[in-house]
Design a protein that fits this description.
It is built from 9 helices and 5 strands, in the order ααβαβααβαβαβαα. With 251 residues, the chain is an alpha/beta fold. The chain has a 5-stranded parallel beta sheet, sandwiched between helices. Strand 4, helix 7 and strand 5 form a beta-alpha-beta unit.
């Protein structure tokens, strides 16, 4: 069977974006990892939030083999994925004022914790207000977003600001406006989005930086092992017991 030219072009585009992020965001990724390590050492908790497809990268660092056991999803009902019916409801909820504050007020997040907010465009009310409210509560906010949107689109939040404007640390995914890497004659719409690939890589690189920062301090990173290898369940049980007061996906 012959190779697909377009498939190859997508890989090239995704690899190019990953290389740009690696080279241009290395300092910010290290800073994010250090902030996470600071929180782990201080007894704080870790949360990740994303709506729609941005939620995939948040879920990718929660309760998984090789991941930090302390990372929790900060869930906003109705916004996590296409399991909601109708799927368009999630997009609508991202534009609702006041929702982020209500979620944070009823969550276990408190001052001294870290919240990673993932939003490709960073322009909707939900991620912007999530960052504003989290910082007001004393959380450290790490934003994972595409700065291109803040430079080429208008905010949908009443403040006129974007996610990047309300974070302690910003990681730029470099994704272009529209999130589609291929544009081909004969196909009306651009296609082949790379945001999930790149954003998930940013999240995992951040976790690696956090593990490195903990190691430098002589602290064993609280990592989970695969349940599909011998001894994995026993290992994870010990970690979850030790850090039970900072893990919320079990309660």
């Amino acid at each position: 069977m012959s190779e697909s030219k377009l498939a190859g072009q997508f890989f090239d585009a995704a690899i190019g974006l990953l290389e740009r992020v690696r080279d241009e965001e290395s300092g910010s990724i290290a800073a994010a990892g250090a902030a996470i390590a600071d929180t782990v050492v201080a007894g704080g908790r870790l949360f990740a939030f994303g709506a729609g497809h941005s939620s995939l990268a948040a879920q990718d660092v929660v309760y998984r083999a090789g991941g930090l056991a302390l990372m929790n999803v900060l869930a906003v009902p109705g916004t996590l994925g296409v399991d909601v019916m109708p799927a368009t409801l999630g997009s609508a909820l991202e534009r609702v004022d006041g929702l982020a504050g209500a979620v944070l007020d009823s969550s276990p997040a408190k001052a001294g914790d870290v919240l990673v907010i993932i939003s490709l465009s960073g322009r909707n009310a939900l991620p912007v207000e999530m960052a504003l409210n989290a910082r007001a509560l004393g959380l450290k906010v790490i934003g994972v977003t595409s700065v291109a949107y803040a430079e080429g689109t208008r905010s949908r939040h009443s403040s006129g600001g974007f996610l990047r404007d309300h974070c302690d640390i910003v990681l730029d995914s470099k994704i272009s406006i529209g999130d589609a890497e291929l544009d081909v004659d004969g196909i009306e719409a651009p296609f082949a989005p790379a945001s999930t690939v790149v954003t998930s890589a940013i999240m995992q690189s951040m976790m690696a930086a956090a593990a490195e920062s903990l190691l430098e301090r002589g602290v064993e990173p609280p990592l989970l092992r695969s349940g599909n290898v011998d001894g994995g369940h026993e290992w994870n049980g010990r970690v979850m017991t030790e850090y039970a007061d900072r893990i919320f996906y079990r309660h």
